[in-house]
Amino acid sequence: MQPMTKDTDNMPATRPEMSRHSFLGIELEIAGGVLIPREETELLGRTAIGIVANSTSPLVIDMCCGSGNLGLAIASAVPSAKVMSADLTDETVNAARHNTQRLGLSDRVEVYQGDLFAAFGDKSPAGKVDLVVCNPPYISAKRLHETLAHLLEEEPREAFDGGPFGISILQRLVRDSADMLRPGGSLAFEFGEGQHHQVAHLLSRSGAYEEISFVDNELGIARVAIARKK
User: Fold this and answer.
1) Does residue 167 lie in a domain region?
2) pLDDT in tens, 133-154
3) Which positions, given as ranges, span the membrane (predicted)?
């Protein structure tokens, strides 16, 4: 698979009715209405796996899970991990559940549907989570309309549209993850090129996190944020 990020000007990957894609060593089946995992997001996946690799039975939330790629890669790499994945649309939830069953991980990965953490309802793991991982939509609505409209030819708007300034979901993620995480638990998420300072401000302003750091891609560009709950 050719490297591609959600906010590049590359043409979207072509997609048959059901296509297969590799992500961190697992094979996913993806149909229409679901984001095809980008190779760039493997940076977040490797980072997340590194955070919980030596934990005992870590509880992980994969928010905005799409096809389930991040949560399933973590569960595959960390046999003791339990993952709660969630997304909003029927297409993404169906895809994530399908891939969970295909990979034989249904005993440790559950997929929920709803608006961010409200998806968990009365099963909310508030205050118990070791890691929240998320690849959220982070492109501004204006840029998506004016220069990146081609992304919507094959893939859903919900996977890209981050609101007027590209940080609407990021704001909610940073705020609400603090309620889910145990003290010392980690939040790790992808963000767009050029959003480094906005993300640093969001995390710092929340007052809920410490040890805020960033992971650069192979070009030396910060693309992943990590923060620990105080």
Assistant:
1) yes
2) 999 876 544 454 444 444 444 5
3) none
